[in-house]
Every structure is written in C-alpha cells, then in structure tokens.
Task: inverse folding
C-alpha cells in the first residue's frame, strides 16, 4: 500500500504559491468560453429545425452584407440561421480579443501560439459553416457540428491552462497514472459519442441510433467509474473533485435528454415531422449539454496530467506536473 503525505497535516505537501499566474488572460479565457457555449445551442437549433439552408448564400445574406441585412422581419428559419451567423461572428471577435490578450500578457510562448490557434480554429469553423451552405452539404453540416464541440472544448482547455491551479506546484498523489488514463480515455469516449451523435442527427440513420445507444452504456459505465473513484479518494485528489462532480451531474442530464430525444423522435422512420418547442429544447439541449460534458472531461484530463504528480515512492510512477510540462515546452 502506498503511504502518502496528508496535505492537511503535512506542511511539506502543501501547494506552493502559484508563481507566474496572471489573472488577465484567465479572465478573458473564461469569458470567451462562457460566450461560446450558447452558440452551440443556437447552432443546434438551426439543425433541429432543419433550417440550415434557409439563407442560401455565404458570406453574404441574400446578396447583402451580412452585418447590414435586416433580418427582424424575416421568417423564422432565416431569422434563426442569420442570428447564428452573427453570433458566430461575435465569437470570432471575442477570440481575436483573447488572442491579443494572450500575445500581450501571457509570458509563455506556447500559450501565445494557442491564442493564435484559437483564432485559426474559429475562422475554420466559420468557413466550414459557410461551405456547408455554399455546397449544400449534409456531410459538412455534421463535421461543422463536431468541430464546434471540439472548439468549445479547446476554449475550456485555455481556461485551465491559464488558471491559478495550473501554475501551482503539482501535488503528489497515489495512482496518478490511473487517473490520467481513466480521464483521457473518458475524454476520447465522449468525443467518439459526439461524432456518432452527429451522424445520427444529420443522417437520421437507425444504425447510428443503435451504435450511439450502445456507446452510451460504455460512456455511462466509464465516466461513472471515474466519478466514483475521484469521490472515494477526494482527500488525495481534491484538484479533480469539481470537474468529476460536474461530470457526474452532466452525465445524468445527458442520458435523460438522450432518452427524451429518442422518445420524441419515435418512430424514427426518417419522415420529417413538425418540431414542437419541447422537442426542440430536449434535442438541442442534448446536443449542447454534450459540449458541457466534453468540457468536464477536458478539465479533468488536463488537471490529472498537469496538477498531479506521481509519488516518489512508486517506482516508475509518472511524475509530470504542469511545471514540468512547461519546462519541456
Ligand atoms: C464560431 C463559429 C461557429 C460555431 C461554434 C458554430 C456552431 C454550430 C453548431 C454547434 C451547430 C449545430 C450542429 C449540429 O447540431 O450538429 C451549427 C449549425 C450550423 N451552422 Fe454554425 N457555427 C459557427 C459559425 C457558423 C457560420 C459563420 C456559419 C455561416 C453560414 C454557420 C452555419 C451553420 C449552419 C448552416 C448550420 C446548420 C447545419 C445544418 O443544416 O444542420 N455557422 N453551428
Ligand atoms: C452518454 C452520453 C451521450 C452523449 C455524449 C451524446 C451526445 C450526442 C450528441 C453530441 C448528439 C448531437 C450531435 C450533433 O448534432 O452534433 C446526439 C444526438 C442524439 N443522441 Fe446522444 N449522446 C449520449 C447519450 C444518448 C442516449 C442515452 C440516447 C438515448 C437513446 C441518445 C440519443 C440521441 C438521439 C436520438 C440523438 C439525435 C437527436 C436529434 O436528432 O436531434 N444519446 N447525442
């Protein structure tokens, strides 16, 4: 058995102050992530109501400059799709702000590059959305949905990487490798489920529903195991507790919304039917909540890799903490 210093009684095991932490970039990253999530919902509504082609051109809207187009009198489909475009542009502006802030105030070179990458990603996301319309491509619609989730996950990752905890000295904990492998594989499974969900949602394929449901069991089992493990060892890995608890709640909500979506879509025969408000909220909620679930998996994984260190008394235990990662970078 492994004997570990108790951080409450052993002052040596206490955190070092978070040297190098700067609140500015962290605040901007949080604001950007919080601002991005509703876009998943608004984009999701476009898909739920099947109005992705309501505005047939891009980057113009019916030949007009998209920022000057008067969409208030427009039919619902055009209103929804155009609002989504404008919101996308606003997220783009926010991302520029984030990049400038990282370039100016974050001392780490690789963080500056991540700021640039965020801008490239948001532009790519907009172009994908635009070409989904120009080419009238369902495949691009599905890809746009999947990359949107990844973009949101990336914005949340920036929050962790700029956070105070990331700058604190990694704390030794038992079985660090286990937490790392469990959280990373959980992240992988959730993203795989997001990809399957997009296949299901955009193609309405019954096989996709079967595979998505089977994977749901796996995701449920795996994430529950992670959450229970962290909860049982919370004194040893307090850094993981908030993300694990959030993951547990989001997982239950996700399964409930998934079952709700399936119920409302029955008999799943591919025939288009009018979308009720309840169906729109449940189906789009399932899609957008998946973004939050993914975000909790991102936070958990980053924390397990960056904020926990292997214990010296375990031969071969992984000892990389955030600071070591910084040194490598
Ligand atoms: C930051 C930028 C953007 C993000 C994060 C984003 C996100 C999303 C999301 C999450 C969906 C729902 C996908 C699904 O349910 O599977 C969606 C749908 C859509 N987005 Fe975006 N979007 C962005 C920008 C744009 C832009 C600039 C356009 C320009 C035309 C666009 C066009 C569309 C269209 C047409 C759909 C509906 C696709 C369908 O037919 O199902 N998006 N978007
Ligand atoms: C366990 C975790 C789950 C995750 C992470 C997840 C994720 C997703 C995502 C992200 C989408 C939409 C993808 C997109 O449009 O981009 C989706 C669609 C869907 N999921 Fe899940 N899902 C889960 C569990 C379930 C369960 C248990 C069911 C119940 C059978 C379910 C049923 C559905 C249905 C019916 C759709 C299509 C909804 C529509 O067409 O509007 N999901 N899922």
Result:
């Amino acid at each position: 058995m492994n004997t570990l210093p108790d951080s409450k009684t052993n002052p040596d095991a206490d955190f070092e102050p978070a040297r190098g932490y700067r609140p500015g970039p962290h605040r901007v990253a949080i604001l950007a992530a919080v601002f991005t999530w509703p876009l998943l919902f608004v984009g999701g509504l476009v898909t739920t109501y099947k109005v992705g082609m309501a505005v047939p051109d891009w980057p113009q809207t019916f030949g007009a400059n998209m920022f000057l187009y008067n969409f208030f009198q427009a039919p619902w489909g055009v209103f929804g799709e155009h609002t989504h475009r404008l919101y996308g542009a606003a997220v783009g502006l926010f991302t520029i702000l984030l990049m400038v802030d990282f370039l100016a105030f974050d001392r780490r070179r690789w963080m500056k590059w991540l700021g640039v990458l965020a801008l490239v990603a948001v532009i790519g996301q907009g172009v994908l959305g635009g070409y989904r319309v120009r080419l009238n491509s369902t495949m691009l619609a599905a890809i746009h949905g999947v990359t949107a989730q990844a973009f949101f996950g990336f914005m949340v990752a920036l929050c962790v990487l700029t956070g105070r905890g990331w700058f604190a000295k990694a704390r030794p904990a038992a079985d660090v490798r286990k937490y790392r492998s469990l959280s990373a594989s959980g992240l992988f499974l959730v993203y795989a489920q997001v990809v399957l969900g997009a296949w299901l949602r955009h193609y309405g394929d019954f096989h996709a529903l079967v595979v998505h449901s089977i994977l749901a069991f796996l995701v449920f089992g795996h994430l529950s195991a992670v959450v229970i493990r962290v909860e049982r060892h919370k004194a040893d890995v307090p850094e993981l507790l908030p993300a694990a608890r959030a993951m547990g709640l989001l997982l239950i909500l996700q399964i409930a919304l998934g079952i709700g979506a399936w119920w409302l879509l029955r008999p799943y025969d591919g025939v288009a039917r009018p979308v009720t408000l309840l169906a729109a909220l449940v189906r789009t909620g399932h899609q957008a909540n998946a973004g939050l679930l993914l975000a909790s998996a991102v936070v958990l994984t980053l924390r397990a890799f960056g904020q926990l260190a292997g214990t010296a008394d375990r031969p071969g235990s992984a000892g990389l903490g955030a600071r070591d990662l910084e040194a490598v970078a």
Observations:
- The first strand starts at residue 171 and ends at 173.
- Residues 22-162 form one domain.
- The first helix runs from residue 23 to 48.
- The radius of gyration is 22 Å.
